[in-house]
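[recover] target loaded
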């Protein structure tokens, strides 16, 4: 992905997803703050739909698709939270979702993804599953939703950063866990 995003992209993403998602709280962790000598706050995205921030990017991605793309359905690759997020967002928008998961994916994540309405395909390793998702996109005319390297995913995740900035005005240091990098790219 070689697309630059600006604040307007994040604000537009937030407008697209806000009515469907929770505005999660920012809670003080006083004990930890006292230990390190600085205030510590936690953005509780575990309270978000599907239990993860990933739903922000998934819903924004589907919202950015054309009517024709939504009608054709989507496919993605994930072993967990993104899988559930795409399944939930697709069901909410009336979009068919195929989620290719590696064979080693947690049974809990697989069951939850099916429960949110996706067709789940278990396929090899994570790398194998990625290739299978791309193949299915080509073969079945599905739109491939990349789990992190996508302007729409990053902009959706960036709505978290806008909320943090509004809830905690002023200078701050934000620590973000990194997997694929979509969330930190959006918050940065």
């Amino acid at each position: 992905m070689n697309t630059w995003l600006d604040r307007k992209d994040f604000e537009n993403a937030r407008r697209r997803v806000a009515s469907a998602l929770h505005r999660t709280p920012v809670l003080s962790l006083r004990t930890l703050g006292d230990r390190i000598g600085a205030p510590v706050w936690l953005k509780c995205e575990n309270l978000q739909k599907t239990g993860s921030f990933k739903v922000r990017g998934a819903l924004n991605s589907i919202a950015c698709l054309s009517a024709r793309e939504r009608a054709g359905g989507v496919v993605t690759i994930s072993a967990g939270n993104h899988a559930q997020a795409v399944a939930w967002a697709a069901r909410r928008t009336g979009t068919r979702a195929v989620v290719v998961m590696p064979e080693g994916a947690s049974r809990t994540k697989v069951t939850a993804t099916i429960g949110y309405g996706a067709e789940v395909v278990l396929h090899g390793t994570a790398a194998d599953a990625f290739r299978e998702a791309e193949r299915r996109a080509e073969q079945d005319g599905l739109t491939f939703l990349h789990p992190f390297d996508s302007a729409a995913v990053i902009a959706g995740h960036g709505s978290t950063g806008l909320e943090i900035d509004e809830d905690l005005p002023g200078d701050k240091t934000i620590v973000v866990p990194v997997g694929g990098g979509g969330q930190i790219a959006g918050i940065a």
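[recover] notes: The CA atoms of residues 21 and 49 lie 6 Å apart.
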